[in-house]
Amino acid sequence: MLRRQFLLVIMCSSYSLNILFPPFVFLFFCTIEAAIKLPENETIPAVFAFGDSILDTGNNNNLVSVTKFNYPPYGRDFVGGKPTGRASDGKLPSDLIAEALGIKELLPAYLDEDTKDEDLLTGVCFASSGSGLDPLTPTILRVLSLSDQLELFKEYITKLRGIAGEDRANSIISNSLFIVSAGNNDIALTYFITNLRKLQYDVPSYNAFLVASASSFFKDLYELGARRIAVFSPIPLGCLPLLKTLQGGIQRQCVENINEAVELFSANLSTELQSLNSNLPDANLLLIDVYNPLLDFIRDPAKFGFEVANLGCCGTGTVEFIET
Ligand SMILES: *[C@@H]1O[C@H](CO)[C@@H](O)[C@H](O)[C@H]1NC(C)=O
Ligand SMILES: *[C@@H]1O[C@H](CO)[C@@H](O)[C@H](O)[C@H]1NC(C)=O
Questions:
Q1: Which of 54, 217, 228, 298 is deepest in the core (most CB within 10 A)?
Q2: Does any ligand 1 atom lie closer than 6 A to the CB of residue 41?
Q3: What is the CATH number of the domain that holds 130?
Q4: Is residue 93 part of a domain?
């Protein structure tokens, strides 16, 4: 069982975890260490990533969308210092998890034209920066919705069967690790920044709507053969630099009601994952808490070796959307 043997350690220093809502850029500079201990003789043949910019390794590069990261300063600490479409100065959790599992150093974007047949055997990324659980979110940002990502995954399965044969393809999919990060853009952008859903939903009912959407996505993945699904909680969205600037008052505090909404969503999502685990035979869905490790860092950067954590990197420290 994968459960309890999967630990994602996030320490902020040189990599960035980023969510972008055009026209603003937010960067958290973080080192993400994926420490994963598998039972003896257990191997994971491939990794598949779905969802948003926390995991997207470059699927938006050819979309007509402003939610793109294939230009500097993105990628400045990446291999060769080149921007790849990762919303980061370096690698993303999708890459680090593939690496920690001993699979490969980078998880290629499915839509990258350089992605080869042999890459398909060990997993690819379908995530799209700006995407979310609410269908409105990817529509606003003109990126791949979760249903678009599922359609690409179906196309992938057909290709994989062609390359590996049906039995091996089925075995790859059922033994692989699926990682999903979604909900960040829905809560921060669609709910709290644009207010597009506020008339229709209060926080508990919007959370229920998001959780229902997540649940249906996980069932679709299960139907397509996925069994091991690691689900990232949203990050402390109330501490996004932009939200601190817009709604955090003169002190640019983390916006507590937004962080509370994230905590509530994660609690509801966790309950839903437990229910899916009991209802879907052999399903192993696990919530990965990204929220608390990041919040620890934001609250006590000195503990992690940093002197300054609340100033923008490139100017006055109050109006930029980039923080170190
Ligand atoms: C792992 O595989 C080796 C070689 O096949 C075997 O000797 C060992 O007993 C296996 N360990 C477990 C825990 O199954
Ligand atoms: C969501 O979580 C809160 C806090 O744990 C709980 O009170 C509420 O009943 C949950 N809602 C749903 C729909 O599960």
A1: 54
A2: yes
A3: 3.40.50
A4: yes
